[in-house]
Amino acid sequence: MRLGLDIGGTKTDAVVLDDGGALAHRLRAATGLGADAVVATAVTLIERIASEAGLEPASFDSIGVGIPGQVDTATGHVWHAVNLGVDELDFGGRVSERIGVPVSVENDVKAAALGAYHLLPGRQQERSMAYLNLGTGLAAGLVIDGRLWRGARGAAGEIGHIPVDPQGVLCPCGQRGCLETVASGSAIARQWPSDDPIPIRSLLAAAEAGDGAAQRIRDSFVDNVAAAVRVLVLTLDVDTVTIGGGLSALGDWLLDSVREVLGRWAADSAFLASLGLSDRVRVVPAGFPAAAVGAALVGAGTSHPVVSLGEQRDERVVSWLK
Amino acid sequence: MRLGLDIGGTKTDAVVLDDGGALAHRLRAATGLGADAVVATAVTLIERIASEAGLEPASFDSIGVGIPGQVDTATGHVWHAVNLGVDELDFGGRVSERIGVPVSVENDVKAAALGAYHLLPGRQQERSMAYLNLGTGLAAGLVIDGRLWRGARGAAGEIGHIPVDPQGVLCPCGQRGCLETVASGSAIARQWPSDDPIPIRSLLAAAEAGDGAAQRIRDSFVDNVAAAVRVLVLTLDVDTVTIGGGLSALGDWLLDSVREVLGRWAADSAFLASLGLSDRVRVVPAGFPAAAVGAALVGAGTSHPVVSLGEQRDERVVSWLK
């Protein structure tokens, strides 16, 4: 049995995978903010789900945690987990000490990439996948040749900071017009201030009602999500691009809109058409615990695990989620 | 012994690698244009360099060929090798039939990526490299985890068709403002028509002499080569980006200019600075037969060879080239 945690800005997701790779248990709880509260959230959830599974933490084959920010996978150290109120934290060390067994730590988007790759149907035919995370920011996790690819310094997939508009706004990263400044939750919140806790909901309603400004912001958002897909396929030629993160809750609307843009581009470019971009895009199903499952797999003890989950088990997981 | 060929638009390069991976023989000849002449060039050079090595073609452990255009590595079929006057050709089949043994075929930029990865010093510490080919067009070959990564449809590295300027010129691919329309040999030839067989030489001379238009074209070229490096590192976080292709003959000027732009960007962005882009860039030494050597390695019989060349041998190859 493997245990995985995904520590998000509002909620933390815990899962237990059985020996066949199927989801045996799942728990969610609010995430505490600040270093001490984040550690306490992780420890409490590990103990609760272990107890639900009838095991001691030490009895699991592995325990892994996905967490936002920059992660040193060798030490479990975490930096710049802004949404958690954490600037720097020996997360792996502190959690391991509290529960008495080693814990693997991975960036949440990278963990989600691994989780989505192993859970989604069809991966048997696919050697590669980019997981395009549309949350507060925009970043991708990459699975290449069936393995998580972190890159030389763990920066693989940081496509949110590829500039796409020389006249664009200044990005917190110091560059101008980054992809993240037009195709992310923060981009929508900046361009369409709203009391709605999900600003894009208000934006889409206004656009639907005929507001020209809202339509322009919406169209720019969709165009640039499509541009992110294009960058990923032109650079890596991944079999699929799976869109996840908070904005993936837009579900079919997001998928259809992005495919419509990719289809329009393909109509003008035989080259793009030959790449079949539109067919490669998917959106993760709502509630899909990709990062927690991926964290359980990362916990297998290497940052490049090749974990084979049987086809049968995949189907069970997928139907469990429906 | 392995035999490798690189079929270029003007010259074809042939090499023989000995069992330790060192360059034992090298020959060059003019490339004939059109399907029949291209096949004849390959067959003649294979026979000549085999004879120089004192072997029959059938005695080599492998024979591989790098060729421009789209390549089906399973069949050796080639499409759209425009510079060779070839629209479609059963290249692998025809050459194999003529010399009596199977020949592996790979796209020349992908072969060069593998060759550069194995030949350049320092690869012992490096798991990944992007080979950025600046020739008539702009494309990259990718080595990830020590292996050539072709992608789902062989399109990995086609970053020349990432649009960077919505107001840019129409690219032959059907999109507007592609990276290739501003940072390639064809981009220079279009923007700076000249009788010089190497138009960028005339451009750089004019820019040096104070011509404002030439300076703008030159600066846009360098900025966008740097942008290509940024796309490769932000997407893949490769250890190094090695610039090759015809324009790599610009050598230190190109390396220094690109590093100057990357350094300027890093001064404005702590994020980019943390990635150390400038330190990751290299330019292939003049005359470096990267594609021919890579073709010899591709010929090992798989599109994802892991060929280990001893450190000693690498040094011999590198010094042979100086």
From TrEMBL, chains A, B:
* One MF annotation (Gene Ontology) recorded for this entry: kinase activity
Q: What Pfam families has UniProt attached to this entry?
A: ROK
> InterPro entries this protein is in?
ATPase_NBD, ROK
- Carries keyword Kinase? yes
Give the top-rank taxon of the lineage listed in the UniProt record for this protein. Bacteria
Instruction: Tell me the keywords, alphabetical order.
Output: Kinase, Transferase
Give the family per the record.
Belongs to the ROK (NagC/XylR) family.
| Name used for this protein in its record | Sugar kinase
